[in-house]
Write a structure and sequence with these properties.
- This protein is an alpha/beta fold and 322 residues long.
- The chain has one domain: Alpha-Beta Barrel (TIM Barrel), CATH 3.20.20.100.
- 37% of the residues lie in helices and 15% in strands.
- The protein has helices spanning 37-46, 62-71, 101-115, 134-146, 160-167, 190-197, 223-226, 236-252, 256-264, 278-285, 294-304, 312-317, and strands spanning 3-5, 13-15, 18-20, 51-53, 79-84, 120-125, 150-156, 172-178, 200-204, 270-274.
- An 8-stranded parallel beta barrel has the order 3-4-5-6-7-8-9-10, surrounded by 5 helices. Strands 1-2 form a two-stranded antiparallel ribbon.
- α6 links the parallel β8 and β9.
- α1 runs parallel beside α10 (278-285) and α8 (236-252) crosses α9.
- The structure holds NADP nicotinamide-adenine-dinucleotide phosphate.
- The site of NADP nicotinamide-adenine-dinucleotide phosphate (NAP) has 29 residues, from β10 and α10.
């Protein structure tokens, strides 16, 4: 696996694929078999991976506990990203939910404890809560930097204008967004914003929760049929994308899911791979050796293209004189 600098503002050498740990545990009733997780982590590490994505909410704190235990003896070899906002509880109380300073402080302390570490590499709110002023989020994150509890700040699921306003006031380093062939709305604002500020960009759900593996067409079950929180289904737009993925997969003798991940790797960003089993992880890791041709990338760009909307459509028509 290649190592790349994480964004343009850091000297942090990060593996090109991040391992997502949302399925690490059983407290939410659906996830990886707990005894298999050390093997999944070891396969990722053996392939050259050093970057793990977590949140306090993942399996209600269990994912951080499992990863904390695994990395304890080699903590400094890993880049650990974790998130707060929802706490590790099923139904957090109002004072323990959101992006305000109180949740931020109690969450960072709880994550440090579960992770068995005294610093978090990258820390971020899980989503914009729509209430906490961006100045409060920015100052709170900066204070955690000053206190040495975190090394880098980031934002997940924030509107571009708020992220830009925060990036103007504190050293913002990371952005985490949903991005895949089935979800390209970040092409409207977030991708350009991240590039302007040189943010390390982490792409989550690159397989659209497993939909882009094509397994549901083959009658298989998985998160999208078994978990209550499933969000994707095969509509007209994704049907065209899946057809193209299957065609390209046949051309180069790989799987549709591997083609979808190889496409995500063509962006200036770090896909976060989610694996519930060792086999799934092994399949995803092979993606780093897949070279799509420019023509194949272009076919996938076309079938997944979205309307950028106003004002981007106007800007495309502006006559250039230089
Ligand atoms: N910031 C956020 O709000 C946010 C949101 C979501 C995710 N994330 C992060 O991003 C990571 C990845 O997200 P994601 O899990 O949604 O990613 P994804 O790549 O879109 O979906 C991964 C899921 O697809 C299925 N899958 C993977 N490989 C497969 C294969 N070879 N064959 C068949 N099925 C396969 C598995 O689910 P099943 O086996 O259950 O079908 C797996 O858990 C998470 O772990 C988390 O770290 C962040």
């Amino acid at each position: 696996m290649k190592i790349k600098l994480f964004g343009k503002q850091t000297g942090l050498p990060a593996s090109q694929l991040i391992l997502g740990a949302a399925s690490f545990g059983s407290r939410r009733g659906y996830g990886a078999v707990v005894d298999d997780i050390p093997q999944i982590l070891s396969a990722y590490v053996d392939s050259g991976g050093n970057f793990i994505d977590l949140a306090d909410q993942y399996q209600l704190g269990e994912a951080e506990e499992i990863v904390g235990k695994y990395v304890a003896a080699m903590r400094n070899d890993f880049i650990i990203c974790t998130k707060y906002t929802r706490s590790s509880e099923t139904n957090p109380s109002p004072a323990n939910f959101g992006n305000h300073r109180k949740t931020m402080r109690q969450s960072v302390e709880a994550s440090l404890k579960r992770l068995k570490t005294d610093y978090i590499d990258i820390f971020m709110p899980h989503f914009d809560d729509g209430i906490t002023p961006i100045e409060e989020v920015a100052r709170g994150l900066e204070d955690l930097l000053q206190a040495g509890k975190i090394l880098y700040t980031g934002l997940a699921n924030f509107p571009a204008w708020k992220a830009a306003a925060i990036a103007k006031t504190i050293p913002l380093t990371a952005l985490q967004i949903e991005y895949s062939l089935a979800q390209r709305t970040a092409d409207r604002e977030l991708m350009d914003m991240a590039s302007y500020f040189g943010l390390g960009t982490m792409l989550y759900s690159p397989l659209a929760g497993g939909l882009l593996t094509g397994k549901y067409r083959r009658g298989a079950s998985g998160r999208l049929t078994l978990s209550a929180s499933a969000t994707y289904h095969e509509d007209e737009a994704t049907k065209t994308i899946l057809d193209e993925l299957e065609t390209i997969a046949k051309e180069i003798t790989v799987t549709p899911g591997q083609v979808a991940l190889a496409w995500a790797l063509t962006r200036d960003a770090f896909p976060i791979i989610g694996a519930r089993t060792l086999n799934q992880l092994q399949e995803s890791l092979k993606t780093v050796d897949i070279q799509l041709s420019a023509e194949q990338v272009s076919r996938l760009d076309i079938v997944s293209n979205i309307q950028l909307g106003y004002p981007h459509e106007i800007l495309k028509t502006v006559q250039r004189h230089y």
